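Exercise 7.
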Amino acid sequence: MKYLTYILRNARRNPVRTGLTIASTSICLFLMMILLSFFAMNTEATSSTRIFNRIVTMNANGFAGMLPVSRVRQIAAMEGVVGATPFQWYGGKYHDEVMPFAQFGVDADSVFTILDEYAVPADQLADFKANKDGAIIGRKLATDRNLKVGDPLPLKGDIYPVDLDLTVRGIYNGDTNRDLRMCLFHYEYLDEALKKTTMSGAGGSLATASSQRSGNAGSIFIKCKSADVMTSLCKKIDEEYRNTEFPTRTQTEEAFGLMFAEMLGDLKNTIYWIGAAVVVSLLFVAGNAMAMTMRERTTEVAVLKAIGFTKGLVLFLVLSEAVLVAGLGGAIGSLGCKYFCDFVDVARFSGGFLPFFYIPWNIAILGLAVSLFVGFVSGLIPAFLAANSSVIDGLRKVV
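Solution. The predicted structure, written as tokens, is:
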């Protein structure tokens, strides 16, 4: 600690160079945190669903396939099942905005028994169940659209050839890593509207005929009594419908969520390579700054060694300065990005693509560790050269 003042003074000796090095490090790490957090956040949020003991059933051929809604009742009656609800994607337009937020047709009586991590005031939930044209929306969606209980929520059909005139009957809330931008409405309301239309009507060009017609549950979310029965229930459900016209694929909610990440293909590896390129570029930036710094201090290093400073101590002083400058930039970039995303709802600017966004602590700490690594490696060669420099040559050198 007795050398801390000296290290700080050296770091402030050329404020422009130090400031630019800190700024470049912090900006690069800020952007890298956002890129890395996209996958880490989804993995963390998906993994957190394990405690809810939910499984998801869909058509074995994917979302475009038919999943008869009659199976919701059949599955709900199976041993080990607490409840089941259809989860039918609607994807309508709100004020001519294409799919601005997630919209699902659900069983109003059981949906919040299954999605029990969400909280809804009892009176609002009762009002939602009592009104077939009612909808419950997430807190963040209500804030984004300036909606409140009792407001109309008209949705124009895009995938389906029907429009829905909904009314907000409740607003649900939950943890920050849960989707608080969904709109949940009565499945029966959509199904009855579809029964009144023909496939030759307007709209509906984005889905297959089988997924457009009434009676399609889309997918089925199932709440199990315990984690012990989840695997056996998945097998039982798929075996039950294996030889039917519409075979199923049942998996845990965690696996269901990770399936969407797999759809992105090699994007994850691409982002990791971009992160590696950022680290290499930071090494060159920080290394160049330290090399210029030590060139200017050749005589000063020689004086230090002449008055008794050992090679190890000189090495320590130079490395400490490099780690300090890079670490400060890392703290501003990584931890600053973490707190910025905690206080600013970045997801609202994603055009409905992200329901939430935050920087996981493990990613923020990784960013800080990367900055310290950059500082250490970038200062290693200048520190080694300074520690092994000749005292006579250093005192004779004019910079």
